[in-house]
Amino acid sequence: MDRIFTYTVAATLAVAAVLQVAFGNPDIRMFAFPVNAAILLALVGGLFVLNREAGKSRFAAAFASGYAGAAVVVLAAVCCIPVALWPRAEFQRSWIFGAVLLLTLAVLFLAMLRYRGAMRLRFLLNHAGLFIFVAALAFGAPDMQRLRAAVDTGGSTDVAYDDRGLPHSLGYTLAVESFEADFYDNGQPSGFRAVVTADGKSRTLRVNHPWRKSWRQDIYLAGYDTAAGSDSQYCILEFVVQPWKYAALAGLLLFLAGAVAMIRGGRQRA
């Protein structure tokens, strides 16, 4: 079984490497909703059918084995090395990194379907939480957006711009009512804030204190005209769109609940 998994992983990574050499890092925006949702559903559905129709096969058993679990952990750890050492290469957006994530999700899902041990509930909590967390981060990345807009004090905007300078409609009009900055005696800024209004609601934005405009969007105060100081005529607002963030949070909580349950169960048996 170990060989079956090893050969499958090698073939998958070889295909990913060919795609990487041929096309470079893909534009992950092409996997935005509903494409990412369709791929995730196809992955889950395909694995469910595989387990139901060929659950006794060596292939299915290989992907649910302890060897497979350890292997994907090692692969994920190895993939984190270039991410940490060469961040500008954006290896986390590569075909190879994506292939490792898909393999990890496949191993987790088949392990959940096939586990019949004594600690089934704890095992399912732990693995389901990790599956949801990884899936939300991986498939949610194409839907995440960071948009920015420089808005004059007393002015308003209904668009913001991505890192390519392309405009995106906010779906509402946001106005900056006022902006203030405080400074230390040496002239360094100690803090700044802006009062903004949208949809009839007013909020005071401060650094690292965003306005949670909706379940999917937070608005941050990102900067101002530092040359003008307290006389800045505009402030820079950042709009962070993360539709999958609560799914990731739910997965993390499930994983922690399973981990705590396993630790408590182990202590009770001891």
Q: Overview of this structure, please?
A:
The chain is an alpha+beta fold. The protein is built from 7 helices and 8 strands, in the order ααααααββββββββα. The chain has helices at residues 2-23, 35-54, 58-63, 66-85, 95-114, 120-140, 245-269, and strands spanning 145-152, 156-161, 167-183, 189-198, 201-206, 211-212, 217-224, 234-241.
Ends distance: 33 Å
Number of helices: 7
Helix fraction by DSSP (H/I, runs of at least 4): 40-55%
Q: What is the number of E strands?
A: 8
Order of helices and strands: HHHHHHEEEEEEEEH
- The structure class reads alpha+beta
How would you sum up the major sheet? 4 strands, antiparallel
Mean pLDDT: 92
Proportion of β residues? 15-25%
Low-confidence stretches: none
Q: What general outline do the C-alpha atoms trace?
A: elongated
- In what order do the strands lie side by side in the largest sheet? 1-8-7-6
Using the CA coordinates, give the radius of gyration: 24 Å
Give the helices and strands, then pairings:
Elements: H1 2-23, H2 35-54, H3 58-63, H4 66-85, H5 95-114, H6 120-140, E1 145-152, E2 156-161, E3 167-183, E4 189-198, E5 201-206, E6 211-212, E7 217-224, E8 234-241, H7 245-269
Antiparallel strand pairs: 1-8, 2-3, 3-4, 4-5, 6-7, 7-8
Helix pairs in contact: 1-5, 2-5, 4-5, 5-6, 6-7
